[in-house]
Design brief:
With 425 residues, this protein is of the alpha+beta class. It contains 15 helices and ten strands. The structure holds flavin-adenine dinucleotide.
């Protein structure tokens, strides 16, 4: 039997450990020292590093990477099951070595880096000795890479990069920035002269690259290969976001259900009102549809490749945004005035939902990808009528029974009646 929705017992044990660990160790850190896991401050490191060590000791560090790159080689499906837990907690991805934007950058380095580049950047990133950012979007347009202008010119044994980037997440805190140029992907140490980080926005940075000089060896992958590298990078990142979104919508759902059972209105607990039941029922179905789409996509990546799962990844991208929007709204609404405050996570979740439809590519662009790829499997119908045009199909079917109809008047009468019924319909 090939279809199976169960988790193998050994990995389920790991997941149970992760759930407890996150609840008992990571959630308290998030509530009192948010950001400690990302910090280089020695006191913050003293809090977070022992947690990271526990994750390493369990063999769960950098789960997205294959064995030959230092990860456990569990694959995307197991990562999805893990992320369904981690996504609830702000610091969990970094404590487990699976935080964006480093994961996507590491995947790019792992796939396209030379041995020297891996030694210099991949392994230090894996060990969180350094952090990275990804600079692709430009102020004049993000959805269409053909509008990008940032370019590198070769000058002797250096590349000279000039251009402007917008919304580079964590750019101001990164040690290295992966800069997508029209003629290649380049690794730029943030401290390089000419890297100018604007004051605003604070977390997703506006960066000018003013004749930034890097050695020839900082070109990652082939010259002119930036779009291919970007696809590789963003594909992985998108599915990881979708996995964590499953965790978020489950959290919203838990809050919705608990609250619905806890409050009364008009003579009954809220959960007994049919419109509340509809919200719960719709959310239940939508969360599971998203989850199965994500797990199926992860399975496809494991059993084939990221490229083979491209249509599925795009579908995950806009579906997660939609389900997050719908479910977090219903949860907020059912929680009433409390839901509108920052006293529970639901308000921030709902406020952040539109961001999901923009980051890593806007919904519309992913829908176009899905439609285009799906349509490749279809042809226009050859004549005036569609393939499913019933009169034509029935004429064909009558040929199969021709000898019977000719010899049996009762059957011939049935066949004529059926044709008349169709014509009326
Ligand atoms: C939280 C967050 C983090 C991000 N981090 C990074 C990062 O680390 N590095 C980085 O380089 N970028 C990053 N981005 C930028 C992100 O990649 C872009 O915002 C995204 O690609 C869209 O580009 P844009 O913002 O310029 O919107 P635009 O391209 O201007 O699009 C705006 C709107 O126009 C419409 N539209 C655009 N194209 C089409 C189309 N083909 N069909 C129909 N409608 C269309 C849509 O309604 C779309 O929402 C981040 C964004 C967010 C929100």
């Amino acid at each position: 039997m090939a279809w199976d929705f169960s988790t193998e017992p050994e990995f389920q044990e790991q997941l149970d450990w992760v759930a407890d660990f996150c609840k008992n160790e990571i959630e308290p850190l998030d509530l009192v020292f948010p950001g400690a896991a990302y910090s280089r401050n020695p006191k913050a490191k003293a809090l977070a590093d022992p947690l990271k060590q526990q994750v390493k000791d369990r063999g769960l560090w950098a789960l997205f990477l294959d064995k030959d790159l230092g990860g456990p080689g569990f694959g995307q499906l197991k990562l999805a099951l893990l992320n369904e837990i981690l996504g609830r907690y702000r610091s969990a991805p970094v404590v487990f070595g699976t935080a964006a934007p480093d994961t996507g950058n590491m995947e790019m380095l792992a796939a396209y880096g030379t041995d020297e580049q891996k030694q210099k950047w991949l392994y230090p990133l894996m060990n969180q000795e350094i952090f990275s950012a990804y600079s692709m979007t430009e102020p004049q347009g993000g959805s269409d890479p053909n509008l990008f202008k940032t370019r590198a010119e070769r000058d002797g044994d250096e590349w000279v990069i000039t251009g402007e980037k917008w919304f580079t997440s964590a750019g101001a805190h990164a040690d290295i920035i992966f800069v997508m140029c029209t003629n290649g992907m380049f690794v730029v140490p943030r401290e390089t002269p000419g890297v100018e980080i604007a004051e605003y926005p604070a977390t997703h940075n506006h960066i000018r690259y003013d004749h930034v000089r890097v050695p020839l060896g900082n070109l990652l992958g082939p010259e002119d290969g930036a779009k291919v590298l970007a696809q590789r990078r963003l594909g992985g990142g998108r599915i990881h976001h979708a996995m964590r979104t499953v965790a978020q919508v489950r959290l919203a759902f838990d809050m919705m259900c608990e609250r619905a059972l806890s409050r009364e209105s008009h003579g009954r607990v809220i959960a007994e009102h049919q419109m509340v039941q509809e919200a719960i029922a719709d959310s239940y179905a939508e969360i599971n549809m998203l989850r199965l789409l994500v797990l199926w996509t992860a399975w496809t990546i494991d059993n084939s490749s990221t490229q083979a799962a491209r249509t599925q990844i795009a579908a995950c991208k806009y579906t997660m945004a939609k389900v997050l929007r719908e479910v977090s709204y219903r949860a907020l609404h059912i929680m009433g005035s409390l839901g509108t405050t920052n006293l529970t996570p639901v308000q921030a979740m709902y406020a952040g939902a539109p961001t999901m439809g923009i980051a890593d590519g806007v919904d519309e662009v992913h829908k176009v990808t899905v439609a285009r790829n799906v349509l490749k499997g279809y042809e226009p119908h050859p004549g005036l009528w569609p393939t499913e045009y019933i009169p034509a199909k029935r004429d064909e079917a009558r040929k199969k029974f021709a000898s019977l109809i000719e010899t049996d008047s009762e059957l011939a009468a049935w066949a004529d009646a059926a044709v008349r019924t169709t014509a009326r319909g």
